Amino acid sequence: MSRASLEKKPAEVAAMFDGTAERYDLLNTLMTGGQDRRWRREVVRALAARPGERVLDLAAGTGTSSVPFAEAGAETVACDFSLGMLRVGTRRQAGVHGLSFVAGDALRLPFADGSFDAVTISFGLRNVADTGRALRELRRVAKPGGRLVICEVSHPPNAVLALGHRTHLRYGLPLLGRVSSNPGSYHYLAESTLAWPDQAALARLVQDAGWSAVRWRDLTFGVAALHHAVNPG
């Protein structure tokens, strides 16, 4: 099975996720001890999608994260560059009203300027080769006043918790990967998490991309973080 390097070449990352598409949601749950479901509920609350709005869920994978926005009455687009993920998603989410799947690259989104009332990305931004460019693309397709919510892995600010978290990433995830169908993906996810910027550094990247009112809050003691921002237009 494929694994990607920290160079995050799009073809490598897409191939890795193609290979894990059928078990992707289970993989997330195993890696996070079930916390991913609670984190996604926090995203739904933070984005506060409303009927009649148009929402982009980028790096949506199988669309599990997109369904609640559609159920809230928003026209929801689940976008991902892994065709394997999209195939699984269209099958699993068949019949969900208001949800569509679109293949797209985060660095060249296939949408017109100002297309969405809200944009969100969960656990996908660290897989993009150019974080700043992806954040600028998200701003481009958001309407003036449009909302951004990012849910991503992060780093616990508490030193003791941070040490335990790093130990889990360096040794726990690779050990779990030994019994998986794609052990390389566990190694990549551990390495990409360790290399990812902390909460404040990501907030600066969001602000540098032109977003305003940037703020964040920790989830599960900082293992993940939720960043909010607004497109000033």
UniProtKB/TrEMBL annotation:
UniProt EC number: 2.1.1.163
Family note: Belongs to the class I-like SAM-binding methyltransferase superfamily. MenG/UbiE family.
Protein name as catalogued: Demethylmenaquinone methyltransferase
Function comment: Methyltransferase required for the conversion of demethylmenaquinol (DMKH2) to menaquinol (MKH2).
PANTHER family found in the cross-reference section: 2-METHOXY-6-POLYPRENYL-1,4-BENZOQUINOL METHYLASE, MITOCHONDRIAL (PTHR43591:SF24), METHYLTRANSFERASE (PTHR43591)
GO molecular function: methyltransferase activity
Domain of life (superkingdom): Bacteria
Gene source species: Actinomadura meridiana
Pathway where this protein functions: Quinol/quinone metabolism; menaquinone biosynthesis; menaquinol from 1,4-dihydroxy-2-naphthoate: step 2/2
Amino-acid positions noted as binding S-adenosyl-L-methionine in the UniProt annotation, renumbered to this chain: T62, D80, D105, A106, S122
GO biological process: methylation
